[in-house]
Design brief:
Order of helices and strands: EHEHEHEHHEHH
Distance between the termini: 42 Å
Largest sheet: 5 strands, parallel
Oligomer: single chain
CATH superfamily: HUPs
CATH architecture: 3-Layer(aba) Sandwich
Strand order of the largest sheet: 3-2-1-4-5
Number of strands: 5
Structural class: alpha/beta
Strand content: 5-15%
CATH topology: Rossmann fold
Shape: globular
Number of domains: 1
CATH class: Alpha Beta
Length: 230
C-alpha cells in the first residue's frame, strides 16, 4: 500500500477519529484503519467508519470483541443511556457510558497490528477538553500505555520506539471540527450518538450528541448529521 512510514489509526466512526485519521494522512503516513465491533448499542458507527476508510482508499479492518461479556456500561449492557436537554447539565462525574478498559483493549490490538505492519505510530482521537471525563482519554493514560508498549514488543526492545499520537487531546470540539474541515473531512460520514434511532438518526440528547452539537455551533458551521428532534 505504501513505501514510507505507516500508522495504525483507531477509527470509531465518530468525528474525532475521522479528524485524527485526516491528520495522520496529512503528516504523510500510510494509514491502516482499525475499528471494533464490541457489542456496542451504537454499532451504526461502524458503517460510518467503513465509509470514511473507503472514501480515502484506506485498508480498514474491523475486529470482533464482545465486551457485553462484562457489561458495566450503558453502551454494552442493559443500562439506560443518560439524556439531557442541554450541555450545561453535564457534570464532572464519569457517566455510565464509560466502557471499562475500552481504550486499553483497543490500543493493545492497534499495538499488535502495528508490530506486524512494521509501523512505529498509532493515532487515537482522544480528547481531554470537550469530553465526558473518561479516565482512558487522559494524557497520563496515553503516556503510561506508550511506555508499556515500548517494553512489550520486539520492536520496542530493539530500539524502534512506538509513538502514540493524540493530536486532538488539547483541542475543543469546535477546534477539532475546524481542523477537520480544513483537511476536507466529510462530517456527514460520522456519527457521535450513543443511542441512535433504528434509522440511524442521532438522539440529540446523550452526552456525546450534546458535545457534538455544541462543537458545531461554536465552530459556526452546520452539523450535517440528522437528529431525531429535527
Amino acid at each position: 500500500m505504501d513505501g514510507g512510514k505507516r500508522a495504525v489509526v483507531l477509527l470509531s466512526g465518530g468525528l474525532d477519529s475521522a479528524t485524527a485519521m485526516a491528520l495522520a494522512k496529512a503528516e504523510g503516513f500510510g494509514v491502516y484503519a482499525l475499528s471494533f465491533r464490541y457489542g456496542q448499542r451504537h454499532a451504526i458507527e461502524l458503517d460510518c467508519a467503513a465509509k470514511q476508510a473507503a472514501e480515502s482508499a484506506i485498508e480498514h479492518r474491523v475486529v470482533e470483541i464482545d465486551l457485553r461479556a462484562f457489561g458495566g456500561s450503558a453502551l454494552t449492557d442493559a443500562i439506560e443511556v443518560p439524556k439531557h436537554d442541554d450541555v450545561t447539565e453535564l457534570t464532572d462525574e464519569i457517566p455510565v457510558t464509560y466502557v471499562p478498559a475500552r481504550n486499553t483493549v483497543f490500543l493493545s490490538y492497534a499495538l499488535a497490528w502495528a508490530e506486524v505492519l512494521g509501523a512505529n505510530d498509532i493515532f487515537i482521537g482522544v480528547n481531554a477538553l470537550d469530553y465526558s471525563g473518561y479516565p482512558d482519554c487522559r494524557p497520563e493514560f496515553i503516556a503510561a500505555f506508550e511506555r508499556m508498549a515500548n517494553l512489550a514488543t520486539v520492536a520496542g526492545i530493539k530500539g524502534q520506539k512506538l509513538t502514540i499520537h493524540t493530536p486532538l487531546i488539547d483541542l475543543t470540539k469546535a477546534q477539532i471540527i475546524q481542523v477537520g474541515l480544513d483537511l476536507g473531512v466529510d462530517y456527514a460520514n460520522t456519527t457521535s450518538c450513543y443511542d441512535p434511532a433504528s434509522d440511524g438518526r442521532a438522539c440529540g440528547r446523550c452526552d456525546s450528541c450534546l458535545l457534538r452539537k455544541k462543537g458545531f455551533k461554536d465552530a459556526g458551521t452546520k452539523d450535517p448529521r440528522e437528529y431525531v428532534e429535527e
